[in-house]
């Protein structure tokens, strides 16, 4: 089986590795987005998928959009099918039609739940206890194509969006390989998506801002869903503080929303219902530190209230 692989971020690397290591699969080329500025110095850096492809000696095509010229290059590859994992751009109909068996997408949700760019993040923010992955045939709509296969996974108490995505990127890789084989061999039975549709638009920095008037459980879900990107944060005296590892403390009810207190070595913050305990914090311009160490070093006699 000859394939084109399309993907960009680190979550798309494990499926690429899995496919590249299969003796019955030949990756003719890897399509990824162009180099992007990384770090404080904004150094142009190849995507994680591009770096892995180059390490393996695979031809790399870099493009942020698939135009007519690129479509012809894809057609000329002679691939049977394309595998897509978080490529990051829409595939136009002409490109979909360029390969005999189309384009098969691995999406980290149980479609039609959480269609869009941030399925795991939105699922955790909504409090879902079960997540998963689906393979489906791409069509013109947003994640609307018929489903070839699915797998599920339970959300663990310590999970963040980052840990769930990392786990699914590994455990769903065999599902992608099996689905590709079934599509090319003609044994796949794609089924139209059924059930309630929910959308998962890309997260913005504002999605990470903690709303202390929300109940404690909602605060915890927001932090888990926005960790590590775009990051959960609050403000103190107009300066941002990044938060991670937040746990609900519903029995604490004497703190006003946003009010912070150090008790018994634990940093507690009031919410709209109960409180939460902070794990680590990262004040602007400083390194991540234990929340209790931050609180002990916060030199103020005033009542501390996060904004």
UniProtKB/TrEMBL annotation:
Keyword Membrane attributed: no
GO molecular function (one): methionyl-tRNA formyltransferase activity
Reaction equations catalysed: L-methionyl-tRNA(fMet) + (6R)-10-formyltetrahydrofolate = N-formyl-L-methionyl-tRNA(fMet) + (6S)-5,6,7,8-tetrahydrofolate + H(+)
Database matches in Gene3D superfamilies: 3.40.50.12230
Enzyme class: transferase
Keywords attached to this entry: Protein biosynthesis, Transferase
Domain of life the protein comes from: Bacteria
Record domain Formyl transferase N-terminal: where: 4-173
One Pfam family linked to the record: Formyl_trans_N
InterPro entries referenced in this protein's UniProt entry, alphabetically: Fmt, Formyl_trans_C, Formyl_transf_N, Formyl_transf_N_sf, Formyl_transferase-like_C_sf, Met-tRNA-FMT_C, Met-tRNA-FMT_N
Family membership: Belongs to the Fmt family.
NCBIfam families for this protein: fmt
Matches recorded under HAMAP family: Formyl_trans
Function according to Swiss-Prot or TrEMBL: Attaches a formyl group to the free amino group of methionyl-tRNA(fMet). The formyl group appears to play a dual role in the initiator identity of N-formylmethionyl-tRNA by promoting its recognition by IF2 and preventing the misappropriation of this tRNA by the elongation apparatus.
Name of the featured protein: Methionyl-tRNA formyltransferase
